[in-house]
Amino acid sequence: MTPAEKTTEEIIRDLKQGREPKENFRLLYDRYSIPILGFFRKRGVNDAEELKDDVFVAVYNNLEGLREETKFEYWLFAIARNKYKNWLKSEKSRGTFEGSTAGEIEDLDEWDPPAPVRMNPEYALLEREKVSRVLEVLHSLPDQKRLVAILAWVEERSPKEIAAILPITINHLGEAELIEYHSNRLPEPERRRVEAHLAVCATCLKELVEMSDFLQSAFENKNVPSDTPAHASQFEALWDQVAPLPPSSSGAPDPKPVGSWKRPRMLFALAASLFIGFAVTGIWALVLRQENRRLVQGPAGEGPQIAWEEKNRTLQAEKNSLQQREDLLKSENRRLQEQIQSMEQQQETLLAELRQPDINIPIKNIYPSGDAQRSRGSNDINRVRIPPSSTAFVLILTDYETGYPDYTLEILDQSGRAISTVGGLKPDDNGDLTVKLERALLHQPQYRLRLSGRKSGRSTRLADYFIKIE
């Protein structure tokens, strides 16, 4: 078996056991340096090369702490993300950070179309359908979660503002939970709980998307050739950082095993931390005991009465504050209930309009780019003629690679910006994939439909379909 055929798990096990450390570390560097560099450059890091080397130094020095070799890529993503956060803090402290970086993920649902589109009746119908779906989700939630969803979705309140209004604590998902969810290892109840949280928490959803993008980039770049002289010289400079020991008497370099230098230093740090912890705990207990004695005794000649009166005044003030908070919550609850009733009335009106059946929906077979069986010459663009009276149309995707449990279709405009993603596509009895699109969603004449297949937790790009709306 050639070195390039070794799995990542085999490389890590050999590194932990000290077998050919430089060659195995080079394999890791060849496979993951491009995704890590892209991760930093996408976020506008001007020191991307330096941060990339810092990530690999951290990988080499901490590899013994990785218990499951199969989770290496998740672990690598966590290291890169922490390096980016530290860099961002340092940039802000120096005053060189100017707003969001180029890597911030856009929320496509918040895109506001131009005024002529908003006045279009078809766009209004699409907006009413969105409201209807939101109301259906709201009705299925418990009361407290429904209030949280309304504050987050309808009123666009931040998590801190929601926590100030409602007597709850909004906790984000942990990194381990996101990893288990992304790798499809959660049982069904836990998976539903995580998905319900992702529906109302933009922060956790963004972190999941960043993790998925990084892993997809790592998968796509594993086999990219990286044997250029510049790449080799960069690795040699990096190896000098992680294995700086001088050559042995035989003349060959004697690199240290992964993480071997850390054990004595870690034991010393642990012992020092325990000693400091015990000392601080003892001092804090002594201070609390003296403060308690002072409060009980009170000032000289006045006894403990003054301390108790002060305590009573503090408790009364807290009681008044809690009463005001309770009145505010009741008022906010009444307002939200009225808003829910109003939205329910709007829902009934919208549902009555949406119950009208769609008739004469145009259906069009489309072929992928480069398909030789196209009926209209050699042009790769599928022309789709939509009558002005039609609000939707159906596309039948042909000549795609079969064998995947489900497929995902991503719709890109002429600038390459994703405007919609349709997941969970499955072939019908004839082996075709069909998708219904709303005419109001497509405002430009040409689009690219990118089809991907998903198998064993991996997404593979299969074909591109180009369409022109006429």
Portion in helices: 40-55%
Taking all residues together, what is the mean pLDDT?
A: 75
Main sheet makeup: 5 strands, mixed
H/E topology pattern: HHHHHHHHHHHHHHEEEEEEEE
SS-based structural class?
Answer: alpha/beta
Which residues form runs of ≥5 with pLDDT under 50? Answer: 99-120, 247-257, 259-268
Strands of the widest sheet, in order across it, are: 2-8-7-4-5
What share of the residues does DSSP label as strand, in percent?
Answer: 5-15%
How many helices? The count is 14
Q: Supply Rg.
A: 30 Å
The global form is flat
- Please count the beta strands (DSSP E, at least 2 residues each): 8
End-to-end Cα distance: 55 Å
Describe the structure.
It is a single chain. The protein has 470 residues and is α/β, with parallel strands linked by helices. Among the domains are: 1-104 and 187-260, no CATH class; 363-469, Immunoglobulin-like, CATH 2.60.40. The chain is 54% helix and 12% strand. The protein is built from 14 helices and eight strands. The protein has helices at 8-16, 21-42, 48-62, 72-94, 115-118, 121-140, 143-154, 159-165, 175-182, 188-200, 202-220, 229-242, 262-297, 305-354, and strands at 363-366, 381-384, 392-397, 406-412, 418-425, 433-438, 446-455, 458-469. The strands form two sheets. The protein has a five-stranded mixed sheet with strand order 2-8-7-4-5, with no helix packed on it. Strands 1-3-6 form a three-stranded mixed sheet, with no helix packed on it. Helix 2 packs across helix 3 and helix 6 crosses helix 14. The model is unreliable at 99-120, 247-257 and 259-268 (pLDDT under 50).
